[in-house]
Design goal:
By secondary structure, the chain is of the alpha/beta class. Helix content is 28%, strand content 21%. The chain has one domain: DHBP synthase (Alpha-Beta Complex), CATH 3.90.870. It has helices at residues 14-25, 47-57, 72-78, 83-92, 127-136, 157-164, and strands at 3-6, 30-32, 39-43, 66-68, 97-102, 118-122, 140-144, 170-173, 183-186, 193-196. It has a ten-stranded mixed beta sheet, sandwiched between helices.
Length: 207
């Protein structure tokens, strides 16, 4: 049964966030708000939790999961970033963008794309999520909360609780959450390529 944490959007209660971190370290899946839409998250190094994350989302190992990072410094630990890519990332982070980049050795191979060895990364602009990442101390593995067979993300905490309460460890309610997923930009090729148009404005990237 999922725990339901009502968290103040401007002053997140550390006690509740620490409970969330504890649940994640115990192998749980959490539904958390972001600056684009709700996401399912789990511990980066927990294979069982990552498999469950894919199952809940209804995707296979060719679907890019995303590492939610606190800042660009942390992102650069998990992705190979050249100078041109770094300038583009700096212009768009934090924000509602997911970038596909070549994964470093710090990313477990089972999490990167099986053929391309790429991974999705983003730095979210959401106070509660940033506070959770700070307490967690490392990136969280994430995917947009789009139920299998559906095309739109679920964006209300109460609906998430009702539909997934037996599959999640907790749901964080920090107020209204946008219902639009991130803009996805593939930086692993010769030139930036927008894979999905979403909440992030491509003009901010000069694309």
């Amino acid at each position: 049964m999922a725990q339901f944490f009502e968290i103040h959007p401007d002053n997140p209660q550390e006690r509740l966030l620490r409970q969330t971190v504890s649940l994640l370290h115990s192998g749980g899946i959490a539904a958390v708000p972001t600056d684009s839409s709700y996401a399912l998250v789990c511990h980066l190094n927990d294979k069982t939790a990552a498999d469950k994350l894919r199952q809940l989302r209804g995707v296979d190992d060719k679907h890019h999961l995303t590492l939610l990072c606190r800042d660009l410094k942390e992102l650069a630990t998990y992705a190979r970033v050249d100078n041109a890519q770094y300038r583009l990332l700096k212009a768009a982070t934090p924000g509602a963008y997911t970038f596909i980049l070549q994964a470093t050795k710090d990313v477990p191979r089972r999490l990167s794309h099986p053929k391309r060895q790429t991974i999705g990364l983003r730095v979210p602009e959401h106070r509660t999520l940033q506070a959770l990442l700070a307490l967690h101390g490392e990136p969280l593995l994430a995917t947009t909360l789009i139920p299998p067979g559906e095309s739109e993300p679920v964006h209300e905490a109460s609906e998430i609780r009702e539909r997934f309460e037996k599959q999640l460890a907790c749901v964080i309610d920090a107020g209204n959450c946008p219902s639009e997923p991130t803009t996805v930009v593939d930086l692993s090729g010769d030139a930036p390529n927008i894979v999905r148009f979403g909440r992030g404005d491509p003009a901010r990237l000069g694309l």
